[in-house]
Design brief:
- Helix content is about 45%, strand content about 20%.
- With about 400 residues, the protein is an alpha+beta fold.
- A six-stranded antiparallel β-sheet has the order 3-2-1-6-5-4, sandwiched between helices. The chain has a five-stranded mixed β-sheet with strand order 8-10-11-13-12, covered by helices on one side.
- Helix 2 packs antiparallel against helix 6 and helix 8 runs parallel beside helix 9.
- The two termini are about 65 Å apart.
């Protein structure tokens, strides 16, 4: 008895050490056959579609051959165990002429005795664990108790392995959906660029050549097209949210030059809102190992975000500060500011400071999320500070000088 209990503990430990379902099933039938001293043991699971029992693991017989054989639920001993959800002990199988078909009739002609128990996962019977042909004496109640204990442990192991398999499949499906989403965004944004470029070009010509009323309408078209271009650029940059270090094209670059390029790109849009752009960029040889285009994109997003939440006539500044082992970029505005609770959330994708039903400022809420992705890909960091609502905001981006 002590030996059997120690083997049950060993079974539990072994089953909990792996989530490989087939290895677990093979170990279960090997253990059952050994502990009960029988010639063979099998574990059958019900097929969720056909509702037939199929061999999932066995000893003593050829596994590949067994897997091809469906065991009828209505005309077999294991089917009786499954249907009636009760154990069964038969120590004189085949002596009479009217016994229902047994597992042995299907796969083996010489079954003398059989012990089987239902396999329950939670409250559902999902299979049968059976042992056949005990070598010494008949199957008894102690054998039944032992097989039921093994069956209980098997049910837990099978349930956990199936849950892991479902989780992995769900994760793979999410990955496929995510890939489809990225492909759709890339294709849609690419296809929209050509007609939008034509709209922008013709709207600009109409604005220059039209009379006052027509020029006003052309200005409205041009303004809407510019907003659409901003949205398309945001869509194009969605993949930047998953940017990793391995996706950077690194080279030694002067940070002053990257910052000036960002200012030049953002200046037209900032000036159009009658705002002032100021920069404090020391002309020294401050260099870093960076991806220039991506760092420039992050700085442009910071400047455009500051402009979006600043009033006409406001001032936006970009400063580059040397720090030990780092360079800090500071973008400051004197706009709507924010509460302390929002300072971390503004870097979440699609987060909007304003309520989406009443907000007055455009944007998809991707700019600062992209800034954080670029900073973290460079092994840097980003954070924001504000003294409160209507007190302006300063966003910091720290980039290491060497990676």
């Amino acid at each position: 008895m002590v030996v059997r209990l120690s083997r049950l503990v060993e079974i539990s430990v072994t089953l909990n050490s792996t989530l490989d379902l087939q290895r677990q099933l093979d170990f279960i039938v090997d253990s059952a056959s050994d502990l009960l001293g029988c010639e063979a043991a099998s574990l059958l699971l019900v097929n969720e579609h056909t509702r037939e029992l199929r061999f999932a693991a066995s000893t003593g017989w050829e596994q590949d051959a067994l897997e091809q054989i469906p065991v009828p639920v209505e005309r077999s001993m294991v089917g009786t165990i499954f249907r009636e959800d009760r154990p069964l002990i038969l120590n004189e199988v085949g002596l009479g002429g009217d016994e229902p078909m047994t597992t042995g009739d299907v796969v083996h002609p010489r079954i003398r005795s059989l012990l089987g128990v239902p396999l329950r996962i939670r409250d559902e019977v999902t299979g049968v664990l059976e042992a056949v042909n005990k070598r010494k004496g008949p199957f008894n109640e102690m054998d039944l108790q032992m097989l039921e204990n093994i069956s209980s442990q098997a049910a837990v192991a099978i349930h956990n392995a199936r849950m892991l398999d479902r989780l992995q499949k769900a994760y793979e499906e999410l990955g496929t959906l995510d890939s489809l989403k990225s492909d759709f965004i890339a294709i849609a944004s690419h296809e929209l660029r050509t007609p939008l470029g034509l709209i922008l070009g013709y709207a600009s010509l109409l604005k220059e050549d039209a009379s006052d009323d027509a020029a006003e309408h052309a200005e409205a078209v041009l303004s809407s097209a510019m907003r659409m271009r901003t949205l398309i650029e945001a869509m194009t940059n969605l993949n930047m949210l998953r940017l990793g270090t391995g996706e950077l094209d690194l080279s030694r670059r002067l940070l002053h030059d990257i910052a000036m390029d960002a200012c030049e790109e953002a200046r037209e849009a900032i000036t159009a809102k009658e705002q002032k752009l100021r920069w404090i960029l020391p002309r020294n040889s401050l260099e870093a190992h960076i991806d220039g285009p991506k760092l420039k994109l992050a700085l442009v997003n910071l400047l455009m975000n500051a402009s979006r939440f600043s009033p006409p006539g406001g001032e936006i500044s970009l400063e580059l500060r040397p720090k030990p082992q780092e360079a800090w970029f500071l973008v400051q505005d004197h706009g709507i500011g924010m509460s302390q609770s929002e300072l971390e959330r503004i870097f979440l994708p699609f987060y909007q400071v304003e309520n989406h039903m009443t907000r007055r400022h455009d944007g998809m809420g991707l700019g600062l999320a992209i800034v954080r992705a670029v900073a973290e890909a460079h092994r840097g960091r980003v954070w924001a500070e504000s003294e409160g609502e209507n007190m302006g905001t300063t966003v910091y981006m720290a980039i290491p000088l060497s990676m």
